[in-house]
What we know:
Number of helices: 8
CATH architecture of the largest domain: 3-Layer(aba) Sandwich
Helix content: 40-55%
Number of domains: 2
Structural class: alpha/beta
Order of helices and strands: EHEHEHEHEHEHHHE
Distance between the termini: 31 Å
Amino acid sequence: MDLQLTDKVAIVTGASKGIGRAIAETLAGEGMRLVIVARSRAQLEELAAPLGDRVLVHAVDLMTPEVPAAVIEATLARFGRLDVLVNNAGAATRGDFLTLSDADWADGFALKFLGAMRLSRAAWPHLRASGGSIVNIVGIGGRTGSAEFAIGGAVNAALLNLTKVLADRGVRDGVRVNAINPGGIATDRLQVRLKTFAAERSIDLGEAERQMARAVGVARFGQPDEIARLVAFLASPLAAFCQGSIVDADGGQTRTL
């Protein structure tokens, strides 16, 4: 299927590993030119090496307020346009609500929510000019509260609401804005949780994965490329009637409406 993305320009944040890396690789495979953003220059350059001059590496910390606008400026300077913004960067400290510090809360919102908000704001005029789109990678914790995921759940809920806000504005401006809620995806972050789970129960990683999947009511955990293919579709003109859509890609874990 031709997604009509050839030679269009996308920014992918959190692109150094996991879901973000898979998104970057998938969009590159669709013929897009990329700006890949994360804090780890070495990992970004490894990703960029086979792509030549069709990719711009931008190793920055999106928690710094002025950085998102600088990313947009660098994109325009290199490629002259912007068609897709994928807000994927962000992680939050897990733990007991009563032990989480103000700094933990500030960090959780600074990267995933404020970074996405600032990037979207700076990108908006250029996306309006190109008839482009934003895809926010959020998470099912924004729909269902969990005692151990207080910060992440709150941040995700805020970003889901922002998705709807920007989609409403986008109807007028010709910018499509949608979101994906991944469930458990087989990334390095999940591997850390699996190792902890296995050690606590003296079981191997394979059994830990099976038990954790059963505990949340899914047959298996997802793969990063499964999220990436969904991003490519939502970013493409083939999803032209998707506006403010929130897609749960979680193996059936979310059972509420």
